[in-house]
Amino acid sequence: xxxxxxxxxxxxxxxxxxxxxxxxxxxxxxxxxxxxxxxxxxxxxxxxxxxxxxxxxxxxxxxxxxxxxxxxxxxxxxxxxxxxxxxxxxxxxxxxxxxxx
Amino acid sequence: xxxxxxxxxxxxxxxxxxxxxxxxxxxxxxxxxxxxxxxxxxxxxxxxxxxxxxxxxxxxxxxxxxxxxxxxxxxxxxxxxxxxxxxxxxxxxxxxxxxxxxxxxxxxxxxxxxxxxxxxxxxxxxxxxxxxxxxxxxxxxxxxxxxxxxxxxxxxxxxxxxxxxxxxxxxxxxxxxxxxxxxxxxxxxxxxxxxxxxxxxxxxxxxxxxxxxxxxxxxxxxxxxxxxxxxxxxxxxxxxxxxxxxxxxxxxxxxxxxxxxxxxxxxxxxxxxxxxxxxxxxxxxxxxxxxxxxxxxxxxxxxxxxxxxxxxxxxxxxxxxxxxxxxxxxxxxxxxxxxxxxxxxxxxxxxxxxxxxxxxxxxxxxxxxxxxxx
Lengths: 101, 374
Description:
A: Ubiquitin-like (UB roll); 7 strands; B: D-Amino Acid Oxidase, Chain A, domain 2; FAD/NAD-bd_sf (chain B); FAD-dependent oxidoreductase (chain B)
């Protein structure tokens, strides 16, 4: 479990898999999720195993989530925003299901 | 006297062609050594598009059309034999494949080529269908409006070519092949009862040899009375993040690998020796792919790479036994994946028996040396 060094002053709220999560403005989404005690961000594609952020600097692609319906986003490179709808990335992304394919 | 390694058969090159032949030779009971080069050598075996492809091959060369078709038909036997030796599933999928036409003119050109191949092979070439826009869309969901039609051939398919590469190497080991990495061959000298193969690592004596060294065949072949004139052909590929299955077939330029990544190819540059990818070409590849499957526009590309095809002057393979040194053979080809089944199951046993069959004589390099009448 990760602890914040100081309490968040300017707070934002978003959802992860339907549950409300509070974060400090300026957090990366990955940091906000980790600080909220979430340790499974996605299920891996080939091995179907739980995964969490590893590098936290945009290289390893372990922290993928779906943000506002856009799949496979690197949560460590995205700043958390008020009202974001975030879901865990369950296996491989789909191609084009919602836009006519 | 210094100790020198000896073997019955040395295969020069451990790529898809060399490994398929070495594994096949070992299955034929020949004591085989593979002398492979460096990791960073130009290796088509790691850069290829992984198609088991017949459609459109062999225009003006019916023997090549039939050779490719025969290999595609033998592929299930190869996949099963490799699984038996190694437990590795190479994910062979032969559900058929499409060539998607983005203009009427493109479709007509392909149709004429396939008709010509069918004629030249007297109907023995692989079957195909020419489909209009609506028929194509009925079979393949998600196509863009720019697709005006397609060619479909049930013979075509694809495989996980990296796993094929690994399976051949595991299979070689299981069959007792003596594989040596970092053993690039600098020189080959014919000696009594065989050849000296010389590199910076030392030397090996082999009673018989097979050259399967890809691009380096051109340099090595003349040392033993063979010939392999090659031309430059650089290809470039884009690979996307892994996606849920969306396209069950294969195509000339788009295929979805068994683990989900979408591969987008394949360009050809004939005047570049740079190993770097070219962004302008990546853009063209991506643009064409999006015209075929518009939803690919949202998918992230995670890799791109280039490779150099092993391409002879006419694009056809060379299989040859040296006239001056009959214990030396050569196998040169562009389609190391498609032809892997033929190489392992047909060519290797022939080399083991000491003689290439008559069906391979049209692949002799003398076709490049005919007198030029102008």
